[in-house]
Sequence to fold (773 residues):
Amino acid sequence: MTIEKTIEKDATILKLEGWLDTLTSPELACAIDALEATPAIVLDFEKLEYISSAGLRQVVACKKKADFLGAAFSVVNVGKEVYSIFSLTGLDKKIRILGK
Amino acid sequence: MKKRRGTVAKTIALRYAALLFVVLTIIALASYALVYSYALDNARLYSEAATDIYGTILILKSREQGFALTVENADLIQESGEYMCRTYAVDYVYVYVPVEDGVRYIDLSCSKEQESAQRELADEFAKLGRIEPGNTHLHGMKIDYEMTPEELAMWNGEEYYANITMENDFGHELCTISRVTDDFGNAVCVGVDISYASMLNKVTHQYGVLMIMIFGVFAAVTAGLYLIIRKRVLAPAEKISTAMEDFISNGKRSDVKLNVATDDEFGMIAGAYNTMTREIDHYVENIGELRSMEEKQKAEMEVTAKIQKGFLPDGSFADEHYEIRGIMTPAKQIGGDLFDYVRLKDGRLFCVVADVSGKGVSAAMFMSTTLTALRELAKANVEPSVILRETNRILCENNAEGLFVTAFLAFYDPKEQTLTYSNAGHNLPYLLSGKPIPLSDAHGVVLGLFEGETYEQQTIRMRPGDTLFLYTDGVSEAVNEKKEFFGEARLEACLHDGLETDDPDLIGRVERTLRAFAGEDEQSDDLKILTLYLRERKELLLDVDAREFVKIRDAILGCSVPAPVARAMCLSAEELFVNVVSYAFEGGVPDGEKIRFVLERSDRLKLTLEDGGTPYDPLAEVVSADEYDMDEQVGGLGKLISFGIADESHYEYQNGKNRVTILKYLEELGHDD
Fold:
């Protein structure tokens, strides 16, 4: 998995590519730790093929970090498969998902 | 056995002798009784006759010489008495007259044998003063004596004789007394004593001699009979039985002739025995020859069968793409039906079932030619129709016996998941895909008879989960006791049932059904069935370490299923695996502990995870999405995902292992990738 971090004026964007699973989620955890104050935090899942519960937990952690930083949080460009995992776990109701 | 030999003869002889002895003894005793009574009668007659003669002599003498029969003429009377005793076998003769209170002897004469006894008696009387010494003939001596009733009857004229048996000093005597009267009117008693002993001894002596002679003759006859029997019956019987025993125990046979040179039954038996031993020897020799020939043939057959078996593949094979199972029941004869499969270098599988007409070595050799041709052509990467065409050509070139082969052959390509097949007159196989489907017909003529034949071929889709069922006519043409064929309908029904019940042992099911149908019929031994079951199977043994998930992921992604399905399965697997790694071994992981992961793909994808950790049923506490609180719960999410995307989930705890099974159906996905 690769994480491409883009810091813009009004948002910090983390672009994930590949598999977010047990083995790769610690990378996301590091990236989340490294987040600094910003108006919005966006996770771009356009190229994310796979997410497991370990990944979901990091998404939740990211949201909590955003809340802590007072930033808006959203997940964007979620593919069909990955979205189905969000809906399966009910996280789609708790996390703002844009551009399915 | 030997000790008892001949006891029959002895027993017969002894019993015969004993019986004879008893019978003879009875006859002897009976006849002795008869002779004895006759002798008694005779003695009485003799005694009476002697009395008459004595009386007559006295009367005639007294008349001639003119003397009266009185005591005064005792000397004259004595002469007659002595004459009687000399001439006749009598002991005593006497003359007396009854007087008051007794009798008075006129004379008593005796035989020479009795003289001393008489003298002693006379001496006794003389001592007593009853007579003068020297008067041995007791002339004129009166004795006190009461006459017996017989004597009185005789004296009174009522009886002519008085017969009295006496047992006294004179011995066992018969006394016969008669009354005579002389010319002077003097009546006297004349008596004669004869000895029973002397009368009877004579008879019994003669009789005894006779009896001994008879007994002797009988004994001699018996002994003779025994000897004859022994010579003519027992000896030959013993000879025959000895010969028979030798025949059995020593293996001596017709070279030892039985010599009983007589015309009787034993001669006949001996002759028959000699003929029989000769015949048996002859027969045994023949049997030996036949047996050695048969054994040779059998050994040759066995070698042929072994060679043939060596050609052919094992009954089962499995790799990650397919599983092959076959039964080739050991037929009693070598023959020409078989199956074969070869894995080609390019990953394809070549399989064939074939059936050569006929049985025996020629069929087996024909088959090996066929098999070699088929294999070589298959390895040369030739199309099925071409393989059949070329094999037909090769077989036609060398087929003096006019044998032929039916064959069905097919290539399975796991990459393309296609089956390309061609048929030369063989039974149509079944494709088992949910139900038994006979493969559509593309058959040509049998191989080996017609030169230049061409064959069609067909390609069908064969998916994991499908089974190809190949068989020889030993299956469809198995016959039951009523001479009915097993037939395709029964086979199809059996396969159908097997699929319905998801029977993992389809071949075993068909075989059992067939045996139950055919009973003890021999044809049921001649089965050849081959099944090709398509599936993918991967098995991993993983350390208790989350990093091992990479291997699971690679295994699932390497599976020929659509990527979304693979990813979904990965997700299920990851959640379960991580769960086990995190929680199953909280007390510490034992050395060498492994988690077993099995992935199987047929018409569905099946994942099995097995661990030896704390018994735990992950299915028991799956929270629903609505209940999930992302601020509170951590662990529940994985199970929620894992079981949420599965079509079926199972858990069992067995032999100290947790086993979770996840199924993902593939049907609805089709083959549109």
